[in-house]
Structures are given as structure tokens and as C-alpha cells.
Amino acid sequence: MKSTIKFGSVSGIGLFVHWTFLVMMVGIFGFYVYNGLSVVASLMGLALVMTVFGCIVLHELGHAFMARSFKIPTIDITMYPIGGVARLSHMPREPKQEFLIAIAGPAVNLGIAAVLYVVNQIIGAPLSMAEALTPQGNVLSMLMWLNLGLVVFNMLPAFPMDGGRVLRAALATQMDYTNATHVACLIGQGLAFVFAIYGIFYGMWTLPFVAVFVFMAARQEVQHVVERG
Ligand SMILES: [Zn+2]
């Protein structure tokens, strides 16, 4: 059984959603209705979630087009509930190329945020985060902050986040690739450890789970690089 559904393609790159993504959308809709929102309001909430995922698709296309400029094809882009994945045919070992491909995704979100900042200035929408991130907040300033959030989240210096690749590429200019991977993974795991402790102390229970995920991803990356030699 196919676990993904194609919903479009951009310049020959197929865009897919994983079935769990659709389950999540139905779940969010159900959650809104269950909490007393009208069907119209629930659909509008869903539209906002879809818009954020649209921004993530553009982020993945940023990686894909930068990779293409180095003659590295993208197999496909798939959206999961936790985010998107652009599957490249391979990752370059050239630090400068890896750096540019990794940074291209967050750069797209930074660009979207910059455009929304200008638009919000023109229409006189409130720009503060406190005002934007309320149910009554202006949708465009909300989207601006969500895109900035995507930049910060993706630039965390830990695999599998883009920031982990940026860090490794920076280290790889000073040492060999395998050592750079080891150091980048140690930093990422250290960060995951701090997040886990923080989450346990402050009762933010998703953080320890994310930390375990980051911890395993870092180990996988080291294994992957060591196997390829
Ligand atoms: Zn990315």
C-alpha cells in the first residue's frame, strides 16, 4: 500500500503528503468543532495550518533548487505532521555546497517573514508577537511570526535540523568530514540533553521526546558517514 499521496509538482519535483498528515488535518478540524467552534471558523483555522505547511513546502523547495544548482536532483518532497522532507539523490561532501543547500530552506522562511513585515507595515497591522499570536490576531502578522519561528527551529544546531548541517559544514572547513560530523553530533546531543532536562523540570513533556528523536538522528548521521567512509 502506498503511504503517500501526490498533491502536485513544481518544476518536475513531485510533492507528496504522508497519510498521517491527512489524519492530523481531520484531527485538528475535529478538535476545533469539539471545542465549540463553528464549521466556518474551524475551516478557517485549518486554512491557517495549511498556509503554514505551504510555507514549509516553499522551504523544502528552497533546499531542492539550491541542490539543483549543484546538479543534485531531488527525488521528492514529502509532508509529514512534524514537517517536510526534501529527499536529495545524495548530499554533497563539499562543505560550501552542503552549507548553501542547508541554509536555503530557512532563508526562504526569512524571506517570507521579510515580505510579510513590509506588508504589515503598509496595512498598519500590529507587529508585536503578543498581539499577533492570539486567536483575534492579524493573520499576516501571525504568519510572519510563525515563519520566524520556523527559521529559529530549523537553525537549531542539531541533526536532523538544517542547523546541524550548517554546523557540520562550518566545522568541515577546519577538519575532515568524519570528525566534523562527530563534533556536530556531540553538540546536537548536548543540546538535546539540555532540552530534555528543561522539559522535565518545567513539565513540557514533548521536549524529552524531541530530545530522544534528535539523539537518535545524531547517532544515525554518524553511522551513515562512518559507513560511507
Ligand atoms: Zn530544511
Bound molecules: zinc ion
Give the low-confidence spans: none
Strand content: 5-15%
Number of helices: 8
Q: What is the radius of gyration computed over CA atoms, rounded to a whole number of angstroms?
A: 19 Å
Question: Roughly what is the average pLDDT, rounded to an integer?
Answer: 88
Strand order of the largest sheet: 1-2-3-4
Sketch the major β-sheet. 4 strands, mixed
Gross morphology:
globular
Order of helices and strands: EEHHEEHHHHHH
Structural classification: alpha+beta
Structure description:
The protein starts with a strand and ends with a helix. The protein has a domain at 156-229. The chain has eight helices and four strands, in the order E-E-H-H-E-E-H-H-H-H-H-H. It is α+β, with helices and mostly antiparallel strands and 229 residues long. The model has no long low-confidence stretch (mean pLDDT 88). Helix 2 (39-69) crosses helix 5 and helix 3 (95-123) crosses helix 6 (162-172). The chain has a four-stranded mixed β-sheet. Helices cover 68% and strands 11% of the residues. Strand 1 and strand 2 (13-18) form a beta hairpin. The protein binds zinc ion.
